[in-house]
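Interim report to the steering committee. The following record documents the input for Nitronate monooxygenase family protein (357 residues).
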Amino acid sequence: MNLPEVSIGGLCPKLPVIQGGMGIGISLSGLASAVANAGGIGIISGVQIGFREPDFEKDPVSANIRAIGKELRRARELAPNGIIGMNFMSIDSHYTEYVTEAVKQGADLIISGAGLPLTLPELTAGSQTRIVPIVSSARACRLILTKWLRKHNRFPDAVVVEGPLAGGHLGFKLDDLYNRTNQTLEQALADVVAYIRKFEQEHNVSIPIFAAGGIMDYTDVQRMLEIGASGVQVGSSFVTTKECDASDRFKQTYLDARPEDVRIIKSPTGFAARAVNTKFVQQAYDHGGIPVQHCFRCMPEICNAATTPYCLSQALFDAARGENMGGLVFCGGRVGELHEIVTVQQVMDRLTKPAAM
């Protein structure tokens, strides 16, 4: 099966591969530009993107807004002909400001999950920025598409279906993940494909679907295409590349992780998440938690500094830098299969070309 040509609102990558947005500081302009130059779609994570700015602790919102522009401009310089987008969590208290800035700075597309990105059409109205929601079920997909159409007369330019083997925050119930009673990616993808195909016929539109979570090689990609996907979104495999923006210690945590080191946790966001069972995670969940030293107020409606087991932002900062017992290292369910540092081009080849006999 040949890889299909894909159009995301007129954006046509050479290869139907989206690099997943990984924060904090894991997928910035370095990784995103390398993926874009290799023919895929490079995604910069907008989650606390300004954490390296000198005034971040004092004024994180301004620092993040400034860094959005810096990272997008740098990615454009490194990949002038590539497709560069950003990923934002819709539960972020400053989602509106961050998406608005990314649009102002000319992001080709916005991918958004961690909740339902119901306001995304109005935040991108009148721009050339394409919009792509992340869903984990046909039910969530139906809700988003119905509300976007009714309130904004807007269709998504693509949809990402994220299965239970994805890294970071997951769109599945904690108990289902523990008991393995959740849908598989294949099941969720088939349901979303069936719903969107009917939706396309009713509204005379075309909406490409990307499968995400546990995609490692060409065989996985072909399986998703056979179910009805137009392409794939991949995260973990791009972490163990030379071009990834993460620290060497972060990458080494991936290389050292065995399958039994992967753990499902309840994030301070309230969502289930998947991470490496570092010493930090063990302290946070098994030994009384880690007191919050400074609250960045990124999600005050959700996260209470007095009761949370740790500060999510600080834990991810520490992970990106390789500090504080390893920090919170989000990972995909198949991280144990990554054993060496490679290049982005090698990952793209593994995803888009059959293995040599």
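The first helix runs from residue 29 to 37. The committee is asked to note this result when reviewing the revised timeline.
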